[in-house]
Write a structure and sequence with these properties.
Blueprint: E1 12-16, H1 19-29, E2 33-38, E3 41-46, E4 49-55, E5 70-73, H2 76-89, E6 92-94, E7 102-106, E8 112-116, H3 120-129
Parallel strand pairs: 1-4, 5-8
Antiparallel strand pairs: 2-3, 3-4, 6-7, 7-8
Domain VOC: 8-118
Keywords: Transferase
Organism: Sphingomonas oleivorans
Amino acid sequence: MSEPKISGLNHLTLAVGELERSIGFYCDLLGFTLRARWADGAYLEAGALWLCLSCDKDARTSPHPDYSHVAFDVAPEAFDALSERVRRVARIWKENRSEGPSLYFLDPDGHRLELHVGSLASRLAHFRANPAPGLHVIDA
């Protein structure tokens, strides 16, 4: 019998300062679907992603100080239009320097987010085609 291991991401919870504002940002701007709601939280869905918004009056509204961020998958044909909508209302925190189209932006509570076109397979293919010193791609 093999060792128990994690099989994937179950859900992501973000602390938010104003629930209504955050539901609007994620649903109206990014296209999530509201699936459940209660006094201090909500469950949203985008494809296989289950996102929980949990109201925390102490949630910060400034960017988090490190590179940690959440990247959302976007179809290539939808990237330009969605990026334009996001650029009109959200602050950009980083310019794209990776392979494939990406937009790095902040949500109303300062969470670092990314819209990205690509997959782990496309990233590894890019690394194989453009090897960098010290980078090793490990094939399964």
